[in-house]
Design a protein that fits this description.
This protein has a domain of 168 residues: P-loop containing nucleotide triphosphate hydrolases (Rossmann fold), CATH 3.40.50. Helix 3 crosses helix 4 and helix 3 runs parallel beside helix 5. It has a six-stranded mixed beta sheet, with helices on both faces. It has 242 residues and is α/β, with parallel strands linked by helices. The N terminus is likely disordered. The chain has seven helices and ten strands.
Length: 242
């Protein structure tokens, strides 16, 4: 079942380790401001390869979350060139971009974004149902995720019955349950205490070791150290690496 009846199904992405997964050239974003425009991103040129673990850092207002939303195909209001595993995102209509993102990208939010009126198991089922995965296959995938993330005993609980760390764990399980090519995380440990934050980052490191490409936005040098590269933004510009 296609995700959108009016949008072509996204093509399979290249998962060969080291192959270009995200390629941006002169990507820019601006918003109206008094007297003109306010630039959130300026001439961003960036490449992320399959298997990378990249940390995006910079002061507040540097454009980190804006860049992450573009990488995750959540924001379509920008200019420039963006290829996702060789597919020209900049040339796609909005619905096709959205379909590509839902098929290949998992997103972990700082505020969890779990559905309050659904149980843990039902929250995990949502992205699979959204993609048209058959019910029997969904049930098996949910059971596997509950076991893998050690939350079988929480499956019938609602988000309000979980601690912050448990909610974030469910959020990560939901983000990766459909085995996305790319995992994006926006300040994923910002609301957690030190021990919980370390557990989440160690989980990201394991997922990356298993082949998932990870890009995180973080203010934490300790969190950034789990990655292989650091991309620094300032006033919307990417600073030279190294």
């Amino acid at each position: 079942m296609p995700l959108f009846a009016s949008a072509p199904a996204p093509a399979a992405v290249e998962l060969t380790p080291g192959a270009p997964l995200l390629t941006l050239h002169d990507v820019e974003k601006k918003v109206p401001a008094a007297g003109g425009w306010h630039w959130l991103l300026r001439r961003v040129t960036l490449e992320v390869r399959a298997g990378d673990f990249v940390s995006i850092m910079g002061p507040s207002g540097a454009g980190k979350s804006t860049l992450l939303a573009i990488l995750g195909l959540l924001d379509h209001d920008w200019s420039g060139h963006f290829d996702f595993a060789g597919q020209a995102v900049h040339a796609m209509p909005g619905k096709q971009r959205t379909a590509l993102g839902r098929r290949h990208v998992g997103f972990v939010f700082q505020q969890y974004h779990l559905l309050d009126d659904l149980t843990v198991a039902e929250n995990l089922d949502v992205p699979l149902e959204y993609r048209g995965v058959p019910k029997g296959e969904r049930q098996a995938m949910v059971a596997d995720a509950l076991d893998r993330f050690g939350i079988v005993g929480k499956k019938d609980l609602f988000p309000r019955q979980l601690s912050g760390g448990q909610q974030q764990l469910v959020g990560i399980a939901r983000a990766v349950i459909a085995r996305p090519a790319l995992l994006l995380a926006d300040e994923p440990t910002g609301n957690l205490h030190t021990a919980q934050a370390r557990e989440i980052m160690e989980l990201f490191a394991r997922l990356n070791a298993e082949g998932t490409t990870v890009v995180q936005v973080t203010h934490s040098e300790a969190n950034a150290a789990y990655g292989r590269r650091v991309v620094r933004l300032r006033d919307g510009w990417v600073e030279p690496e190294g």
